Structures are given as C-alpha cells and as structure tokens.
Write the structure tokens for this entry.
Amino acid sequence: MKNNLITGTCRSIVLILFGLTLASCASTPPPCYGPQSKNLDTAIHQVQDSLIGGCAANFDLYYDDLLRIAEGDPKAENKRIFSEFLVWSTDEGILSQRQAKDYYNRYFNVKFVSLAGDYNNCTHTCPRRDRIMRNMERELTDKERGLMKVSLDSTGYYRADELYQEVELVLEATCTACAAGR
Amino acid sequence: MNALPILRRPGNTIATRLVRALACLVLAISLPATVLAQSNAPTIRLFPTTVVEDLKQTSSVAREMETGLQEVIGRLDQQQQLYNESKCDGAESDPGCQRLAKQLGATYLDMLGIMEERLPDMEHTVNNTRLSLEKRLRSELGNKMTSWTLQETLLGSNPDGIAQPAPTMRGRSGMRLSERFRQYYQLVASSSSHNDQSLAVLASDIYLDMDETSELIARTREEIARATLIEQLNQSFGTITPEMMEVVGGVKSILFGDEADYVQVAGPPPGSIEQEYRSPLEN
C-alpha cells in the first residue's frame, strides 16, 4: 500500500516534469539567423529559409542585411533581385501587396512613398507639411542607398533629389496660397 | 547717416531680393503669352491670360526701373572714378573735391528718385500678379490635387529619366540681370519646359518671389524717403559718406552681378543609359 503510494507520487512527478518540458519546448521561438553569406543570391535563400521557418517578424532586419550585402556588390540587376524577393514574400503571405510595394518603392523608385495621400493639399498636406518634408528627407536617404549604392542608378537618385526640392518649393507656394485664402 | 541701410549687403538685401523678383517677372513675360496660354492640353491652368497680362505689365515697369538705374549707376561709376583719380580722399576741404562730392551726391539722389518714382507702380502690379497667381495655385495645386498627384505632375511623363531643365530661379543672384533673363528665356522657351511639371515650379517660384517682393517694396519705400532726406542734408556739406558708396556698390552688384560668385559646380556623372529595370511593384 505504502509502496503503491510512493510509486504513484513518483509517476505524477515524472508526468508533471514531462509536461513542463513539453510546454517549455513549445514556447521557445525558433532560432532566427540573419544571412551569413556575402553573396546576395545565397543570402536571399538563407533569409527565405528563416522567414519560412517562423522568423517573419525579423523581416525589417533581414531586408536591411540584404541591402548591406548588396551594397558590397552594387549593380543594376540588384533592383530586379530585390523586386523578386519581395514578390516571393507576398506570394508566401509574409508581406501584403502594399507592404511589398512600400519596401520596393522606398528604396528603388524615384517617387516618394511619403507623399501618398488621398485628400487635397490645402486641407490635408499643408497642415502636415513639416512632417511630410522630414519623412521625404529620410526617404531620400533610403533612395540614395537603394538607387545609388545598391543599384548604381545615379540618374534615378539625382532625379529623386531634384523632385524633393521641387516638392519643397511647390508646397511652400501652394500652402502659402491656401493659407491666404482662408 | 544710415542712408538706405537695407541696401548694404549685396548678397542678401531688400534690393537684391527685389531685383531678383523683377528678374522672375521679366522671365515670365519673356514667354510668349500664347505659348503659356495654349500649351498642349494642359491638365492644370496656372497661367491663364489674366495672369500673363499681370505679369506683362509688372515686367514692363521692372524693365523701366532697371534701365533707369543702370544709366544712373554708370554715371556714379564715372564720378567715383574721377573722385579717386583726383586723390580727393583726405582732401575733402579742397574746393574741387567738394564740387565732385556734391555731383556724386546729386547722382545718388537721382538713383533714389528713380526708385521712389517707380516703386508705387511696381507695388501695384506686383500685388496684382501675386493675387492672380495665389488664386491659381490654391485652386489648381491646392484644391484639385493630392500630394501624390502633385508628385506625379512634377515628375511628368519621364519619371525615371534625366530631369527636365528646371526653371528654378530663386537664389540666382550674382549674375548680370540681362544674362539671367536670357537664360530664363531659353529655359522656358524650350519645348520641354511647356509641360505641367515645369509650369508648376515656375508658378510657385514667381509667386513666392512676388509675395516677398510686396513686403520688400513697402519697406523699401519707407527707407527711400529717409535716405533722401539724409542725403539732401549731406549735400549741404558736400561729403561722400561710406554708406552712400556701400549702397551704390550693393545696387551695382544687383544689376551687373558678380562674375566671381558664379562658379558652376560639376554636375553628377551621367547615369547608365541601359534600359531601366521596371519592377511590377513600382507605383
């Protein structure tokens, strides 16, 4: 009788320990490694493995890593490589279509994502002009990285830089005119 | 003795900015009005006939002022040269030098007189132009466009290619006015400049200059009255004040520019002419 009691207790303890071990295993996140290779294609494959392996939350970090790797081997073709990687990310459900567009256009397109807006300039853009210009300035830095340092597209970058200046001038005039009309 | 102190720093004076604004006006008028009014199916109308007419009128007033000032400044130059060659510095009590100083002072008063005479007309026409452009900018760019459509307008039909020559005029001091007009004319008269993106920048540029100019003209008129009175007093003593020469120097640099300051920085290296890759993700 006494032995049965001891055996039962031991069994319960073993079961509890086993359960705890299983629980701890379930809550441990998978190891998320960034790209190790300096070759962009290989690095992208490594990132894709990590993203599929449950590390989608690290997308920002991986994207930055890939840009850094691409800076080490800049070429016009890099635009296409990044575009295909982003399209793959949407196909896998890691990014929405809109997110993928933003990631691409922020770095590789002349147009400014920061200027997205659905309402007229007098009522919507002008009250936020300072913030919009600061965002554009930051985006211009990203375009310098994507267009110039990664893709060797200096023409595109200079056009973006000029567009930034034109927007600054035209918004200043437009917002002054809007304010005068109130 | 602060004769027209606002004119003293050639690079950043009221007069500098005023003349810069006048340059914008003349540029705008250099455009054939019909070209502006009849550009190929424009989606935005920033320069209708009324605005062009306002600009034209302001431009002619500006031209008259420029011409008048150039002549009187030429005279001032000659008189100053004669004064220096006669070694009048330090010999102010000499009757000959006193006479030269009075002549210089009289020419200086002529210069102030020309500005005083022309400025009321300028003020009126500049205000008309400013108000016309203000209305157009508010309507066409402010109320009819979002920030995104504005960006697309500025980029035009060639978003990835080499930028169109932009008619950016603000801050282009230090160049002879006539040369500036010539360059502006070439800029806007070229066919590539007749599209919406250039007109939006041009209209914004002119409007902001007009806005500043309206304020500057009012302040300048106040200062001229004071400077004239002071110089009339100086005439009694036949002296040439350093302030007077500074003012003349400032106005000269505005009208004739400073060639040394106009040094072009090398442009960026030409971009790849390969066919650009276009991502399906591009906006």
User: Anything to note?
Assistant: Chain A has a mean pLDDT of 89. Chain A has two domains: 33-108, 113-180. Chain A touches chain B through 53 residues (CB under 8 Å). Residues 33-108 of chain A form one domain.
